[in-house]
Amino acid sequence: MSEGVVPDGAIDPAGRIVLVGLMGSGKSTVGALLAKRLGWPLRDSDDQLRAATGLTAREFGEAHGTPSLHDAEAGALLAALAMPGPAVIGAAASVIENHAARAALRGPRIAVVWLHGSPAVLAARFGGQPHRPIYGPDPESVAREQARIRDPLFASVEPITIDVGRRSPSEIAEAALDAIRERLPGIRPSE
Question: pTM for the whole thing?
Answer without folding.
Answer: 0.87
